[in-house]
Design brief:
The structure holds two protein chains of two kinds. By secondary structure, chain A is mainly alpha-helical. Chain A contains 20 helices and eight strands. Chain A has a domain at 299-361. Helix content of chain A is 49%, strand content 10%. Chain B is elongated and about 55 Å long. Classes of the chains: A mainly alpha, B alpha/beta.
Amino acid sequence: MSTRIQKDARPDSLLLNMGPSHPAMHGAVRIMLELDGERILNSEVEVGYLHRGFEKQCESRTFFNLLIYTDRLNYVSPLINNVGYVMTIEKMLGLDVPERAQYIRVLMSELSRISDHLTCLAAMAMECGAFTVFLYNMKAREFIWDVIEATTGARMTTSYIRIGGVRADLQSDYQASVQKAIQETRKVLKDVHGLLDKNKIFLNRTRDIGSMTPDGAVAWGWTGPALRSTGIAYDIRKAFPYLVYDRLEFDIPTGERGDNYDRYMVRMKEMDQSLRIVERCLAHLPKSSAALMAGGIEPTDAIKISRTKKARTYIRLSPNLEGAEKAVYKDILADDDRTVLPAKEDAYTTIEGLISHFQYFMKGHGIRPPIGETYFSVEGGNGEVGYYIVSKGSDKPYRLHLRAPCLPLLAALEELIKGRYVADVIPTFGSMNIILGELDR
Amino acid sequence: MEEKKILDDLKKKFTEKILESSVPFGDLTIVIAKDALLEIVDYLRKTPCEFKMLLDLTCVDHAGRTPRFEMVYHLLALADRQRLRIKLSVAEDDLRVESLTPIWKNANWLEREVYDMFGIRFQGHPDLRRLFMYDGFEGHPLRKDYPLRKRQPMIPLRK
């Protein structure tokens, strides 16, 4: 068995493997290089080392169950994957999501986008020798992940965005922690601009390296920051507005040359815009009905009361379920008992609630979108995260396909590094933010 | 350009090649004859709406139905902000489909993926190999008759 490059290689050239396990390849990807000295004559990228059969796996899980798999696609911004999947199902069901939940989704998406860009630039800068930038970016990301952790209960495997809304309301002190994250990120961005923007070593390794023309980017199917770095201002948040993005003010930063430096710069500027959106969200977030929750009773007491009469008061839920009490339910979840889990209070104390809870998880019941197929996409950290779902009316998807934004980016790598030096592979690969979890599925 | 106008225009131009057109869940969809793919795609790319980008291409296995497979293409018109889905049926005994690699570069990997997962043979593809699975893997895992938990023997290490 031989690969294409082995067959076509010149007899006097050197074949070199980069990866699948290489310190500068974040993720298991193999780049085979055909070298003449240090110049790359040809290359071949091999993927699939992280293939977990996501699409096959989803076909045997219910629409509710498979949400957890979407966390593990782009693992630096799992919340955006959640949003994309959930909104595809909502599009099929025709669900109206409460406004507060929509704002929370935007807030979490933008925080995830910032953490995505921070991670990408941290790794890219570190591989170019700027270790300080790596540490600074990781520091800022920590503050953002604190907010995500406090809201969703997890750092990476969030599964927070649910069909019909979100799992729980924001924590009571979210304003302060989000403000803190914004401030810290702004500080870090300012420092990173100072460290890298006019840094000669960084410029030498990124300027005019890995350049892509606008036509080339379109022919390769690039989306997201990589496409915008070539000067095409295509952003799904503006082109096909979803959630409440049409009510929020932000700009689409673009580059000019489509090289590594422009991809870096577009990501930096996008983080500024995302911070702007986050601030807007904080200001416009509709009020929660959380005040009603004071004086809730213990679940055991509520069950006792419900045996003889209707329990009127709210129930104090276990800390795991905090933020999902009945009082705030209508703020964060759609009012639809076929597709949304009933409030825990109802499941504990009323027979209707118990039945809907049971039915929701019972095989063959639960969420069943109408027969048909649909495609929906959101703007992820790397570009268009699209889901194509075919439903045949059962509680499992007949076919679920993910449009991974990384795939066209990595496919173009061979073209970008052709004729360059071995050292140019690293910033080019770094500036694309290849997430193998999403690419290999 | 409006959805209806795009459909009317296409129907006028390719009367017999467009088998069906609909807008399910707001997604513009056409079903075309298999042999007309390149012709229609080339037309769509140039005039009048400029569907210049191939967003995605994939396949669906409708096991038990004839024709069994269905190729699904998603195109994007950047300027008009319009998406279009093109579908065509592929029979199990004739798995050949024209490759889009001469038109779109990203079709290369996407078609390799579909070949890997479903076994569709793309005609004119320069390098039709598996993308995710390893060489020596038997079968096409996303087909409905491939069991979820099927195990295949490990292959020996490369020399």
